[in-house]
Write a structure and sequence with these properties.
Blueprint (H helix, E strand, L loop, with lengths): L2 E5 L3 E2 L5 E8 L8 E8 L6 E7 L4 E3 L7 E6 L4 E6 L8 E9 L4 E4 L3 E5 L2
Length: about 120
């Protein structure tokens, strides 16, 4: 059973960088053929896909967030990390990490963590 757990600060100041880590257990983030994604849901709104890091280490980001997003990984810890720079209050959301099999949908999700952007 694959499990994902998000961790990181719950409060970030405007213009700073939001940084979250997803720790994966029950499966390796380098196993073919999975993508490891970040998704968010602002209060009262729908889900927004942010980007992923693939089993190979390659990354792909949402065009609307690409200029501010970086996803990296630490294979020794079986973790992957989201960094979102120059945040504004509009980046306030519940942030989720999830696994996606290539060519299929998300099959495992973390519980999500609320990040509030406020001074």
């Amino acid at each position: 059973q694959v499990q994902l757990q998000e961790s990181g600060p719950g409060l970030v100041k405007p213009s700073q960088t939001l940084s979250l880590t997803c720790t994966v257990s029950g499966g390796s983030i380098t196993t073919n053929y999975y993508y490891w994604s970040w998704i968010r849901q602002p209060p009262g709104k729908g889900l927004e896909w942010i980007g992923y890091i693939a089993y190979s280490g390659s990354t792909y980001y949402s065009p609307s967030l690409k200029s501010r997003t970086a996803i990296s990984r630490d294979t020794s810890k079986n973790q992957f990390t989201l960094q979102l720079s120059s945040v504004t209050p509009e980046d306030t959301a519940v942030y989720y990490c999830a696994r996606q099999e290539v060519g299929d949908g998300m099959d495992y999700w973390g519980k999500g963590t609320l990040v509030t952007v406020s001074s």
